[in-house]
Design brief:
This protein is α/β, with parallel strands linked by helices. It contains 7 helices and 10 strands.
């Protein structure tokens, strides 16, 4: 009996220890699980950092693209930018409206030269305004050519004879002295449209006069009309080289209706339409 009690007492001392003890494999499994959790957290942190880096990189690239686009826009060639509107004088606008309304240009291109503004406006056969450029004209004011001036040498033409006559002219290309091809406005009075002559005196400063801000110094020729070289090659010559065209030279002394009588008829039509 005593032996049995001692055995039971020894067993009770052993059982609590056995209940709290953990098998070696269970502890190892938990350690492995903890390691996996730690690894997962580390991987998650790495992924978040990578995403943040990618996001920053994407934002940086987007910013770079925007800057590049803005830079390219600023460097856009001049021909891609909208051209400024062409401002016409009241006299040029009046003649242009009359020519277009009446078809006075006979389905040919035409140019209007305003001597007081020292400018030339070029139109297509359909009446579309192509460009307006500064021009050089005859030194002397006046709307009539001196009789016989066309048969004189340049050295024989007096200061008062160096005029650009006003009127309506059918202009065509032809040869001048020195075999130079020019647009003849009025062959009888030797008035033509061409670029600044290469042999013109430097003292005349023709280029500077043409590019000046005012028309006050644009009177320098013997009567011909000098135009910019690029305009002559790019627009004027292609428009007039096939069949020619009309040139309307506005007066600087005479009334407009005296030089272009049809303007009176046009003015009467406008008056009748405006009347109640």
């Amino acid at each position: 009996m005593i032996a049995v009690l001692r055995a039971l007492a020894g067993l009770s001392l052993i059982l609590p220890v056995a209940a709290t003890a953990q098998p070696p494999e269970t502890a190892a499994a938990r350690a492995t699980g903890a390691g996996k959790a730690s690894s997962t957290k580390a991987n998650s942190a790495k992924t978040s950092a990578a995403k943040a880096t990618a996001s920053k990189s994407g934002a940086k690239k987007a910013g770079t693209k925007k800057k590049a686009a803005a830079k390219n826009s600023a460097k856009a060639p001049a021909e891609d930018r909208p051209a400024p509107p062409i401002v016409q004088t009241a006299e040029t606008g009046r003649v242009a409206r009359w020519v277009a309304a009446e078809g006075d240009n006979q389905k040919l291109p035409y140019a209007i030269i305003d001597k007081n503004d020292a400018s030339l406006s070029l139109y297509t056969a359909g009446g579309k305004l192509l460009d307006k450029v500064p021009v050089l004209i005859g030194i002397a004011p006046g709307d009539d050519a001196t009789a016989g001036v066309g048969s004189k040498k340049l050295s024989q033409i007096g200061p008062a004879e160096k005029t650009t006559p006003a009127g309506r002219y059918l202009a065509k290309f032809g040869l001048a002295f020195g075999r130079e091809r020019v647009l003849w406005v009025d062959y009888a009075t030797s008035v033509a449209i061409h670029t600044i002559p290469a042999d013109s005196s430097k003292k005349e400063r023709r280029r500077e006069r043409m590019l000046s801000d005012t028309p006050d110094d644009n009177r320098i020729t013997f009567g011909c009309i000098n135009v910019p070289r690029a305009f002559y090659a790019r627009l004027l010559r292609p428009q007039f080289q096939k069949k020619g065209g009309y040139v309307y030279v506005l007066p600087d002394s005479k009334p407009m209706e005296e030089v272009f009588p049809r303007l009176r008829v046009d003015a009467l039509k406008d008056t009748r339409i405006a009347a109640p």
